């Protein structure tokens, strides 16, 4: 018996791509909720530490979600780096007193989401199917 695979339409591929992005965001939110209480409250009072802890919580959960979908480890590491990069870069102006702790957290998140999308577009063979 032979089977023929019907090619997916561009709209279907785009929907799956967008769905994958949303799945990663949901996993990140779950990571913040589930892993947040595990950290000492004293650490979270320091904005720089809080930003790295939040990035860690989101990255662990998102990495687990990608691993469950059988993405290769180099792609998981790449996405994890994209998630940490904004926070790491913003620690410099925060440490110099140029931005507040709130700005560090908000800007880190605002920058992280388009960077994640850019990584997905760059590796669209991994996500566009």
Task: Give a brief outline of the structure.
The protein is mostly helical. It has helices spanning 10-35, 41-44, 47-68, 73-95, 101-122, 124-127.
Task: List the keywords.
single chain, mainly alpha, elongated, 129 residues
What are the SSEs and their pairings?
Layout: H1 10-35, H2 41-44, H3 47-68, H4 73-95, H5 101-122, H6 124-127
Helix pairs in contact: 1-3, 3-4, 3-5, 4-5
Structural summary, described in words:
With 129 residues, this protein is mostly helical. 19% of the residues are buried. The chain has helices spanning 10-35, 41-44, 47-68, 73-95, 101-122, 124-127. Helix 1 crosses helix 3 (47-68) and helix 3 runs antiparallel to helix 4 (73-95).
Percent of residues in helical segments? over 70%
Tell the overall outline: elongated
Low-pLDDT runs? none
Distance between the termini: 25 Å
**Percent range for β-strand residues:** under 5%
- In total, how many beta strands? 0
Total number of helices: 6
Series of secondary-structure elements, N-terminal to C-terminal: HHHHHH
Assign the structural class, choosing from mainly alpha, mainly beta, alpha/beta, alpha+beta, or little secondary structure: mainly alpha
Average residue-wise pLDDT: 92
Task: State the major sheet.
Answer: none
Query: What is Rg?
Result: 17 Å
């Amino acid at each position: 018996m032979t089977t023929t695979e019907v090619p997916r339409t561009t709209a279907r591929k785009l929907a799956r791509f967008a769905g994958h992005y949303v799945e990663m965001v949901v996993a990140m939110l779950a990571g913040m909720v589930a892993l947040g209480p595990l950290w000492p409250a004293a650490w979270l009072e320091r904005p720089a530490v809080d930003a790295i802890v939040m990035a860690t919580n989101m990255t662990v959960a998102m990495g687990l979600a990608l691993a469950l979908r059988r993405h290769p480890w180099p792609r998981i590491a790449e996405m994890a780096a994209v998630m940490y990069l904004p926070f790491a870069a913003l620690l410099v102006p925060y440490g110099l007193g140029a931005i507040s702790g709130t700005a560090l957290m908000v800007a880190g998140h605002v920058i992280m989401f388009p960077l994640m999308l850019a990584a997905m577009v760059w590796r669209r063979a991994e996500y566009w199917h």
